[in-house]
Design brief:
55% of the residues lie in helices and 0% in strands.
């Protein structure tokens, strides 16, 4: 049983979500550091990932 309080691992992220995150990073948030990018994903796009997972994607 998965714990709903933890983010999925990098391997569990669906390819469409990975691509969406990478596209947002390249197109809109290219000038933000990783922490600010994480905040924007949460605030503007309702995507909640841990910092290590996000770092592994970008």
């Amino acid at each position: 049983m998965k714990n709903r309080y933890f983010s999925p691992s990098n391997l569990e992220l669906i390819p469409e979500l990975k691509e969406k995150i990478l596209n947002l990073r390249r197109s809109l948030y290219y000038d933000l550091n990783i922490l600010h990018f994480k905040d924007k994903l949460e605030e503007e796009h309702n995507i909640n990932l841990t910092l290590p997972i996000l770092k592994s994607l970008t």
